[in-house]
Amino acid sequence: MTQTGMFSESTRKPTRSTGPRYLPPNLRSPQNGNAAFLDAGAPEFTPSRFYSPQPARTTRGRGRGRGPRYTPRRNPNWEDEKFDELEVVDDTLEEVKVPNNLDAYEDIPVQVSGDNIPPPVKTFAEIDLGDCLKQNIRRCNYIKPTPIQRHAISIAVAGRDLMACAQTGSGKTAAFCFPIICGVLKHPLTVARRGGGGSGLACPFALILAPTRELSCQIYEEAKKFAYMTGVQIAVAYGGTPIYQQLRRLEKGVDILVATPGRLVDMVERAKVSLGMIKYLALDEADRMLDMGFEPQIRKIVEQMDMPPPGTRQTMLFSATFPDEIQRLASDFLSDYVFLAVGRVGSSTDLIVQKVELVQEMDKRNHLLDLLHSQRSNATPHSKHFLTLVFVETKKGANELERWLSRNGFPAIAMHGDKVQMEREQALRSFKSGATPILVATDVASRGLDIPHVAHVINFDMPKNIDDYVHRIGRTGRAGKCGLATAFFSDKNLPLAKSLTELMKESKQEVPSWLSQHAENYSAGTGSAGGWGRHGRGDFGGYDFRKDTASSSTYNNAYAVPAIDGYYAASAASVNVPYGYTYGYGSIVASGWD
Ligand SMILES: Nc1ncnc2c1ncn2[C@@H]1O[C@H](COP(=O)(O)OP(=O)(O)OP(=O)(O)O)[C@@H](O)[C@H]1O
C-alpha cells in the first residue's frame, strides 16, 4: 500500500479512502498592509538617540504612556502611525493565535566559515544595537534571538559581509534588518544627504532587495516596526502600482529603501534614486535574486549604477536555499565574507510534517476535495480557522482551481502574476484575514511570505526543483510552530523523486516505499546522481562552496567549543581549525562538511 492508503501501489489506481485521514497535531488539537510612511512625529535622530531612547509610549500607541512626557519635534513629512497599526491586524483569527516556539530551533547545527569570524551571542542584550532598537525588539515580543539571529546579527554588526542560509520561518528578516537599522542609527544622515532636502534625488543609506512585491511590502512593514520612533526613514518601491506616489514619498528622504529590482532600476534611470551612498546592501531570497531571471538586473543595480564596491559597502545575502553555482556567482558581490548555515543548506524544518501522495494528474481535483472534506470534518473549533495554501504550476490552473473549489463549497481565491497588483493584494488580505481560507497560488507566493495560521500547504502541482519545494512548504511551520505539507506526486514528477526522498529523510519524515523505489529506479535509469547534487557533493550539512577551492591556510582563524545549554558558545581562542567552525552536534560535525 502507499503511504497514505489512498492508492494501491501495484496498479496505482485510485481507491477511495475509507478510514480516517492522517491529520497532524497542529490541525487536530491546537493548544497549540500597507500603512503610510513612518512614525507619529518621529523625531530627526541624532547619534545620542542610538543610546538614549525617547520614553516609550507604554500603551503601545494607544493613549498616553506613563513617565516623562516626550514631545518629539514634528516633521510634517511624517504621517501619524502607531506601533500597533504597523502590525497586520487580523482580529478574525485572534482566537487561534498559536505562540511561537523558538526553542524548536535550538538543536539545529550551525556551521560558520570564513576568516576572523565574530562570535555569536546568546541574547539581544549582548549586541550593541542601541536602546531604541532594543526597545522595539521587546515591543515585537522577540524575547531571545533565533540561531540565525545569534550568529548573523553579531557578524553583520561587526561590519562583515555575509552569506547566510537558514530554514524557512526561522527569523532571517530580523537578522538583516537589525544590523542595518543599527548601522543607520550609528551614522545618521542629514535630511539633505538622504535626499529629503528638495533635490528630488533620494540617496538611501541601505538597500534591501526582494524578488516579489508582496515580500518587499512585508519586509518594509517589519522594518518599520523595528525602526519605530527611531527617526530612521524607510520606504518601499515595487512595480504594479503608480510610480509617482512612491517617488513623492522618496522626495522626503529615505535611509532604508526596500525594493523589487525592476522598479528600482526604473527609479535610478529616471535619476530619482542614487545608489552612491549605499553602505548596506541586503538581498533577501538571494539565490532567487541571482538566478537566471533576476541576475542581469541585480548586476546592473550592483555593478553599473554607482553603488560603492564590495569592501566599501557591506553586503548580506540571505536565503533558505543556496545552490553551489549561485554561491559562486554571489561571491562576486561580496568581500571577505563569512558563510553561515543554520542546518544544512536547503534543508527543511522537521516542524513541518511532510506527506507525499501518489496521484495521477486526472485524479488530482477529486483527491484535493477528499483531503479538504476530511480536514473539515476533523476540524476542532480552533483548527477550523486555519488556512490552507495550494500551489499550482500555472496562472490559468490557479484561476480554474479557484473556481472549481469555490463551486464545490470551499471558498478559495487565486494569486498569480497575471493579476493586477490590487487584485494580488486583495487576495492576500482576504486569505490572511480568514475571509477566504484557501489560497491557490503560483510560485509568486512561494518565498518569504510570513502568513500566520497557514497550517497546511498542498503541492497540487509539484514544483520543478527541490529548492522551490522547500520554500513552498516553508509557508507553514514558521517561528517554531508545526505545520503540514501534502504533495500530490504524479508520473510527471519522477525527476524529483530522489531529492524529495533525501530531503524527507533528512527532515526525519516517513518516506513512502513507492517514492523510495521511484528514487532508485529513476536515478538508475538516467545514470543521474540526482538528489542533493545541486550542492555539488551529495553530502549533508551546511556547505560553503569555497571549501572546494580555498587553501585551508587562508582560513585558520576559526574555532569550535563545547556546548552550553544545548548550544555552543564561542570562545575567543583560536584553536587553528582549518576553515570554519561548527556549532551543534558532534555527529553533524563528522558528517562530511570539511
Ligand atoms: N527572535 C524572535 N522571537 C520571536 N519571533 C520571531 C523572532 N524572530 C523571528 N520571529 C518571527 O518568526 C516569523 C518568521 O520570521 P521570518 O519571516 O523572518 O522568517 P524567514 O527565515 O525570513 O523565512 P523565509 O525563509 O520563509 O523567508 C515571523 O513571524 C517573525 O516575526
Describe this structure in words.
- With 594 residues, the chain is of the alpha/beta class.
- It folds into two domains: 40-84 and 347-521, P-loop containing nucleotide triphosphate hydrolases (Rossmann fold, 3-Layer(aba) Sandwich); 104-344, Rossmann fold (3-Layer(aba) Sandwich).
- Helix content is 29%, strand content 13%.
- The protein is built from 18 helices and 17 strands.
- It has helices at residues 25-28, 47-51, 131-139, 147-157, 172-186, 213-226, 243-250, 261-269, 286-289, 295-303, 324-330, 364-377, 395-407, 421-433, 466-473, 497-506, 513-526, 586-589, and strands at residues 110-113, 162-166, 206-209, 234-237, 256-259, 280-284, 314-319, 338-342, 352-358, 387-391, 412-415, 438-441, 454-459, 483-489, 563-564, 567-568, 581-583.
- The strands form three sheets. Strands 4-5-3-6-7-2-8-1-17 form a nine-stranded mixed beta sheet, with helices on both faces. The chain has a six-stranded parallel beta sheet with strand order 9-14-13-10-12-11. The chain has a two-stranded antiparallel sheet with strand order 15-16.
- β13, α15 and β14 (483-489) form a beta-alpha-beta unit.
- α4 runs parallel beside α5 (172-186), α8 (261-269) crosses α10 (295-303) and α16 (497-506) packs across α17.
- The longest helix has 15 residues, at 172-186.
- The chain is globular, with a radius of gyration of 24 Å.
- Mean pLDDT is 79; it is low at 1-25, 28-49, 52-79, 88-93, 529-541 and 551-594.
- Bound molecules: adenosine-5'-triphosphate.
- Adenosine-5'-triphosphate (ATP) is lined by residues 100, 102, 142, 145-146, 149, 166, 168-174, 320, 448, 450, 474, 478-479.
- Residues 153-340 form the Helicase ATP-binding domain.
- InterPro entries: DEAD/DEAH_box_helicase_dom, Ded1/Dbp1_DEADc, Helicase_ATP-bd, Helicase_C-like, P-loop_NTPase, RNA_helicase_DEAD_Q_motif.
- GO terms for molecular function: ATP binding; hydrolase activity; RNA binding; RNA helicase activity.
- Pfam families: DEAD, Helicase_C.
- Residues 1-77 are annotated as: Disordered.
